[in-house]
Amino acid sequence: MTWYFATLITLAFFLFMEFVAWFSHKYIMHGFLWVLHKDHHIRDGRKFEWNDVFALIFATPSFLFIFFGIQSGFDWKFYAGLGIALYGLSYFLFHDVLVHRRLHMLDKLTNRYLRATITAHLDHHKPNAHYNYGFLVAPWKYYKEEWAKKTR
Fold first, then answer.
1. In whole angstroms, what is the distance from residue 130 CA to residue 120 CA?
2. Half-sphere exposure (CA, 13 Å, Cβ side) for 70?
């Protein structure tokens, strides 16, 4: 497989995972598996939450794609698993490190995209907030508000 197709497959699966995150967050985590997700909406400083089970759930297809992709001579399955794994890493760094501060690093943010997306996610955690979205892309209004702050 050429580097071009490997990169394309990795990127395609990475981007597809944003849809998977949105869909599963809206219809699964806030649906029939709320029992696992609800403790995530209670920010009490615990190191581990039942919500962390979702990391294992999402890591499983990544692991399987990578494993069987290696077994098949680094075919498309490896790069699909790599794209899912890179999304998982991005999710962890954004959601757990930047948004919820489960690891205290990167405290001084000047990036407008990150600040807007973090604000959107924190708004989702407010009582009676019923809107959902992906994890790396938020509704456009948050970006417009953040960019407006810089022009004043």
1. 12
2. 7
For the CA atoms of 141, 143, 144, 147, the dihedral, rounded to the nearest 10 degrees, stands at: 160
pTM: 0.80
Residue whose C-alpha is closest to residue 14's, from 6, 24, 2, 4: 6
Mean pLDDT computed over every residue of the chain:
85
In eight-state DSSP terms, residue 118 is H
| pLDDT at residue 65 greater than cutoff 80 | yes
Span 127-148, average pLDDT: 77
Tokens read off for 144: 């417009």
**Under 8 Å between Cβ of 18 and 134:** yes
